[in-house]
Amino acid sequence: MTAAPGPITVVIADDERTVRESLELILEAQPDLEVVATAADGETALRACTELRPDVALLDVRMPGRDGLWVLAALARRGLVGPEPGAVQVLMLTTFDHGRYQADATAHGARGVLVKSLPWEELVAQVRAAHGARHRE
Most CB within 10 Å of its CB: which of 4, 27, 102, 119? Predict the structure, then answer.
């Protein structure tokens, strides 16, 4: 008998506590999603992603100090972003909807750039789609 697959594991990195906690509440309310770590800065996010190897990381594009783009680039340099088993699927988060970060993010392997004001149902769908992308490639 095959064991049921576990939940989709997620790391959330955002310097705004309210955003982190809101995202965590939304994702944890889903039976197939589990937030395994949150981070308020890039250094902590990189450590969490490297040590825990979540299925999906939600990284704020702009944070003081080391930001989400830095984390993404560091993960990519280490070969931890991509469709391979054990790799992290990254979704970048931004407050404003403009394509300024899209090219940098996708160049390093991000699945997309999401606006923080996205309806929660769509955010959840994007997390699931990012995880599913690993299995389609």
Answer: 27
**Alpha helices, H only, the chain:** 17-28, 42-52, 68-77, 102-107, 120-136
What digits encode the pLDDT tens for the residues 57-72?
Answer: 999 998 988 999 999 9
Categorise residue 134: left if φ over 0, alpha if ψ from -120 to 50, beta otherwise.
Answer: alpha
Sort strands 56-60 and 8-13 into parallel, antiparallel or unpaired: parallel
- State the residue for tokens 């310097």: 15
**Full-model pTM:** 0.91
How many other CB atoms are there within 10 angstroms of residue 58's CB atom?
Answer: 29
With beta carbons less than 8 A apart as the criterion, state whether 80 and 74 touch. no
**Helices within 29-119 (DSSP H only):** 42-52, 68-77, 102-107
d(Cα 113, Cα 91) in Å, to the nearest integer?
A: 6
For 20, other C-beta atoms within 10 Å of its C-beta total: 19
Closest to 13 (Cα-Cα) out of 24, 28, 25: 24
Structure tokens belonging to residue 39:
């981070």
Q: What's the pLDDT tens digit per position in 1-45?
A: 444 578 999 999 999 999 999 999 999 999 999 999 999 999 999
